[in-house]
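Q: For a teaching handout, I want to show students what a protein-ligand complex looks like in token form. Below are the inputs, and the small molecule is flavin mononucleotide. Please produce the holo structure.
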Amino acid sequence: MKRVLIVDDHENNIYYLRSLMEGHGWEVITARHGAEALVLARQKFPDLLISDLLMPVMDGYTLLRHWKADERLNKVPFIVYTATYTEAEDERLALSLGADAFILKPTEPDDFLLRIEDVQKRATQTPPSLPKTIIGTEAATAHLYNETLIRKLEEKMLQLEESNKILKRDQTELRMLERAIKAASQGIVITDPNRSDNPIVYVSPGFERLTGYSSNEVIGRNCRFLQGRDTSPESTAVIRKALQGANTCDIEILNYCKDGRPFWNHLNISPVLDSAGRLTHFIGVQTDVTQQRNLENQLRQSQKMRAIGTLAGGVAHDFNNLLAIIGLHVENILLQIPADSPFKKGLESILKAQDRGAGLTRQLLAFSRKQGIELKPVDIDKTIMGLIEMLSRMVGEDIELEAFYGEGSKVILGDLHQLEQLVTNLVINARDAIQMSGRITIKTSLVDGGNSHPVESERTKPNNFVKLSVIDTGIGMDAETVSRIFEPFFTTKESGKGTGLGLSTVDGLVRQFNGRVEVKSELGKGSTFDIFLPISLEMYAKPTIRNSEGKKIVTGQTVLVVEDQQELRSILARTLRDAGYMVIEAQNGETALETYTNYGSPIHMVITDIVMPKMGGREFSERLLEINPDVIVLFLSGYTEDALLRYGISGSKNHRFIDKPFTVSTLLAKVRELLQ
Ligand SMILES: Cc1cc2nc3c(=O)[nH]c(=O)nc-3n(C[C@H](O)[C@H](O)[C@H](O)COP(=O)(O)O)c2cc1C
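A: Here is the structure, written as tokens, with flavin mononucleotide included.
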């Protein structure tokens, strides 16, 4: 078997030639450069040599010179096979140094084999080719060799300079990318799906800031360590499926920081492919969207509450009218029957039930912010101190109730009874959350509410809010329950134990006092309700209306009663007539205005509903003021749109309100007070 020595510094070239030659019956030996080739050749004496030209240690030209100078080797044909030295001068030099063939890479295998055959044939027929002098002298050959080398060096230099430029550009780009990635607030994670369990191979500084984990702590781990107790398995399944198909994935998933703090991670994962389209990595971009999600939840919640509030307010309004009719009729009957009448007890029971019904509608109205209350300065600490004994009795012996009053005067604008109701509801709620024994803590303090104070001049003042906290050691709530507790009729208590109105009333009252509620709770870890209420200002304070006992008297004064609800209008008129007043009736503002203008004798007072078709109480009272600035008006409230409406129309000193449903005595007392 003939032996060929292949000399080339590139593995791929050797591999190609070896396959070709072995496939055609040659034994192949190889060397990486000229020096190695000479040593090998002198040991193994090949029948043919195929050599590259550009090689480290000793190039092909030098090898050729040594080859042809060695008597034992110079008969062995020397084939130059080159991709770098491709010009005519290069070939001329090689042939002048004794090369038997000069073949350019790449050459088709068949052509290549033909050339080899040709060289072999010539070698048997003619003496070996020996170095010839080109222009006649050894010096000229050396000159040609040097020139060829220098030319090649220059080409190489140019190539290197070009590569250097590209490298520098790449480096600048890399540095820019590194700075940009460092600055990005998002976290960036790169994983290697070709290794077991898709481990992290890179995390950006943004990832470290977001999660609290350092790069060293996470490299080599799968990202799932960010998940925790409340992470939804559905979300992880979505990611898993996307990764299995090497697809992109965009999802919001609940993750946990190193310190255990949960955060909502908007995660975007994309596959990274190489130039051949093979999957090499995954890149994940993480954005903390917790705050955004909270705001969205709050908005959704407040929209829901507003809708429920409107509904509850509407129902309560109509219900109040019915209660007023029942109450006034029953009171009238009671006034007329003898004290020992067998009907008396039953009628009194009806009145009691009516009163309880009125209490319920008051709660609904408080929730829907439609209860007409007059905000007055109330001291929070004093209110709690006045309640604490009653509350202690209410929570029972197994529950410890304690109160801590922070420094400073905590006067807010509210309503004493409603504030008491608010604290009581919170404490009842806390009590019901404690199963056997536990502790309820009430705390008050002055805090900075930022610029959320409802009065502009007060916004920037420090400590402009009172914080009232009710903390219990009860069973706590999960996030789903927390998000629903302020809805009316939502209750976690067993049937018959709670109306589901307690906390919705709290929410309604707090909003009525221009405050807000925050709830912190976790299952098994108790709950904290923080109520933030803006501190009171003198300018808010309005004079209090005092009631006096109504008495049946003959007056002869004329009262115009304006109410769209016919039954309520009649019973009002009847009550007033019974009390000695002259009463004219009208069913809305428009007809009332007409009556008022055209009535021949003086009308001493107008009693009007606020919400009526055609012309409501507000417009009606404004038009009345234009006709008579001293007109006395009593508004039947219970569905005031908001506190502003009240203050808006109570600009006149002769305007008053009475809350529906009202008793005969309060109505008559108000009327008398105003007419005096
Ligand atoms: C690039 C990349 C980034 C990821 N980042 C997170 C992440 O921030 N939070 C997370 O919960 N899961 C992340 N994952 C998903 C988990 O690593 C894992 O694929 C997922 O939990 C589903 O697989 P499993 O069911 O085997 O846990 C990431 C995955 C990849 C490929």
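A: Two things your students might notice: Residues 189, 191, 198, 222-224, 226-227, 236, 239-240, 243, 253, 255, 265, 267, 269, 282-284, 286 surround flavin mononucleotide (CB under 6 Å). Confidence is low (pLDDT under 50) at residues 538-554, 640-644.
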